[in-house]
Amino acid sequence: MCSLVRRAKGPEASQRDLLFLNVNLIGLSSKMALKIFGRVQSFVLTRVYHVYSAEKQCLLPVQTVCCRNYASSNCERTKNLNLLCAQSQSHNLGGSFLSYFSCWNRKLIFTRHMSGVVISRFTKDIDLDKLREEVKQESRETGQPIQLVDRVRQLVAQRCAEAIANLDEDGRKKLRVLQLEHNFLYSEGHDIPNPDFMSDENWVEAMELSSKSQRLKYYLHLQKRFHLKKAEKLKKAAHKEEMQNRLKQEEYEHGRIFMRVYDQTMRRWLNYRLATAMKLGTPLVFDMDYVDLMRPQEQKNTAHQLHDVYCLNRADPKQDPFHLHFTGCHPNNAVLKLMQVKTQDSPFLLSTVTEKSYMDLFDKDRLVYLSPQGRQVMREFDPEAVYIIGAFNDKASQKPVSYARAMEQGIKCQRLPIDEHLSWNQGTKNLTLDQMIRIMLDAKSKLPWKIAFRHIPQRKLR
């Protein structure tokens, strides 16, 4: 049993404006939880959120209130961390939920250093189920925890090294030219990795790029990722040290009065919600048949966004999640391979993944393709419709491929009512997949469009 309490502030706020968000793991309501906890005390988050009030038809500023103890993510060092990363390791009930469901949005695996080309080429014949069993057996024999993702990385690195060693004469000549080009760019002062730090995997990826500008962008991306990884490691070290000091200060002679909620319990409850959605939930389709139209970096970005889509849909507190359908997932789909590697340590990925088209799964009259070029406007969320979102990431050409596909297949195509509610800046109205799932979840909850569009970055608006 747990409860997250938020209190609306302002001169017109009343007792009815108290917003309760429940997770009844043992059948107790949030009001009963307040009776058990007594008065709210000890700590209030400084971060203010805005939550829609159905009674006042407006957004109300709210603050997260903790019962007695505060979570690890409430400190100055960690409160601005990405909410998709699980930071809460507190041992009390109130603290386990004060990072705004950060542990609900847990990243299952971090493999951002693996490119789409490397994954699709060197993991085709890897049996992940068999490899998982081998890792479990080895872990039991040695008594040491072994991560499956580490074993996959070792296999990929080994195969990349073999690919570099087995290059033909033209391949070795091309590799040598690329290495000289990289040395020249490095000597010119570009913020790119040191030549000694370039791995075989990086060279395999660079050899797939056709122009010098593309390779320079790739090298800059590698260096930026190196800095981010270094900063993340420093944050983790500081967080670990702070948690150790806090645990020393919070030791009680007779334990704690709050029941500890384990991460495993949270995952079970969230998976139960997804399993229920697969039986009774509203379907939401992601069209995965765009791989041939994307470059390797765009394929990787699409896979990361789809993983965020799964986590956000899984952790949405407002309503039951969508039943996600990933259609057009052929065995050699590079985006699908990336998703498989990212989620390989999670045995419960509760969604429908199929090679079939959405035309074969649903009635044609129910299908609605969402595209920024659509002529019709989506006025409100239709629970009887099956909405389709193109799993497409195109920063270069930005062609209306989703609209063309909808017209070719003869299904309805709609756009979000962005022009009717927002003043857009210059540029296309393409949104990322994680922004789309946030908007669709709010639209499904019958929130006004202005509230749902708060997930659009302000830099895109006037």
TrEMBL record:
Q: Where is the SAM-dependent MTase TRM10-type domain?
A: 270-462
Q: What is its main location?
A: mitochondrion
Assigned keywords, A-Z? Coiled coil, Methyltransferase, Mitochondrion, S-adenosyl-L-methionine, Transferase, Transit peptide, tRNA processing
What domain of life does the native source organism fall in?
Eukaryota
Please tell me whether the keyword Cytoplasm is annotated for this protein.
no
Query: A GO BP term, please?
Result: positive regulation of mitochondrial translation
Q: Name one GO cellular component term.
A: mitochondrion
Report the InterPro entries cross-referenced here.
Answer: MT_TRM10-typ, MT_TRM10-typ_sf, Trm10_C_MTase_dom, tRNA_m1G_MeTrfase_euk
GO function term, MF aspect, one = methyltransferase activity
UniProt-annotated location(s): Mitochondrion
Q: What is this protein called?
A: RNA (guanine-9-)-methyltransferase domain-containing protein 1
